Amino acid sequence: MKPMKISEAVVRRLPVYLQVLNDLNARDVQTVSSQELGNRLDLNPAQIRKDLAYFGDFGRKGIGYDVTYLIEKIRQILKLDQPLNVALVGAGNLGRALCNYNTYLKDNMKITAVFDVHPSMIGSAINGLTVLPMDKLKETIVARNIRIGIITVPAVEAQHVADQFVDAGVDGILNFAPTILRVQDQVRIHYANFTTELMSLAYYLDEEGEEDHHEPDLD
Amino acid sequence: MKPMKISEAVVRRLPVYLQVLNDLNARDVQTVSSQELGNRLDLNPAQIRKDLAYFGDFGRKGIGYDVTYLIEKIRQILKLDQPLNVALVGAGNLGRALCNYNTYLKDNMKITAVFDVHPSMIGSAINGLTVLPMDKLKETIVARNIRIGIITVPAVEAQHVADQFVDAGVDGILNFAPTILRVQDQVRIHYANFTTELMSLAYYLDEEGEEDHHEPDLD
DNA sequence: TAGATTGTTAATCGATTAACAATC
DNA sequence: TAGATTGTTAATCGATTAACAATC
User: Which of this chain's residues are annotated to bind NAD(+) (chains A, B) (predicted)?
Assistant: First the structure.
């Protein structure tokens, strides 16, 4: 257990490594080098080695990394080797889509409670879960040991939901609403906002065209 | 038109500035300082000023930034002042949720075509759009001047869909499938993967607890 | 004028990359 | 042994922040 501070950039790359490793594993690849991983991810091999070395000596000089072993190790680092209960507020289109994605069962992360403010929603079932009213939020989160809250309500309601999550004692929030949330420092917030993503993508349209995009006619 | 290279970090902050500015605008705030924006976003005011100064002199010394003017300018920078047509492949739960989010009409970005491989889906309507078969993809993208493709299919199909998007001539792809895509360099790919987001969030659980989280009993 | 706040330069900080001894 | 590849140190690169003259 090294007391070294790991940068957020490193932590964000770990799930991506895991993604590629799972893919290699599914194709029965036994061993992979940082070079090979770098190719697949458009990342510098030295960076990958350095990232992994923060957490231990997972590779073998002259050989590379054992795929299944590295998967196991990264899963441990990300705490995916133990169950993680998640609650979701907002049983609209997006919320329901996420609930149905409980494919990530294999990663031990599971949405175990769904809430909504709308009386018409309450009591309906989504992928085996009954939608609960907001006044059951705190007791459910405590009783089911829920650590993370997902917010899929409209932007105007998001802060209010966040406050209730924090009050109920969650440690992290994943916010899909297009708004900034203010919470106590010890609660971590990640944003998953596709509008933002789409906007930054829009910036780059034609951007490369300004350099040398004079397509030679190939007829 | 300065020939300066803008870093990706800067571009990714612009939509977030826009979010906050729209919020201020909705509450009839006329003017905002970098200090105030920094407070709301947990960002250094100097960074905000520097980010904006890459694109022009939008502020007034001693006063701050005019909210509506800055919104207009950022929208121009992100090319949100002109229509941007988007196509989506994968009319499952998530795909339908995104189509129904065409709230972002006000930003001129609009999903104008939806495709799916499953015959059972084809012909059905989602938020006014008819789901089309994949063999109509290229002609539709060309005909409707679609610049961006959204992928909401399972991971194993994602690369194939990406190839078709690239072949049809899109400039950017927003990929929701949990897999890395390989495309020609001039096509830009952004990833919107909540599993990844959830995993990196999981890493931080209890992390702050190791520092000094000895909650003083307050009874 | 005094106070506030920008745009920008210089200083600092941190992250990425190159290079290489260790070793499989 | 020769070739490959790690883990790690040092060098480089780039991004963030501090500081301040300009000016509203």
Answer: 90-95
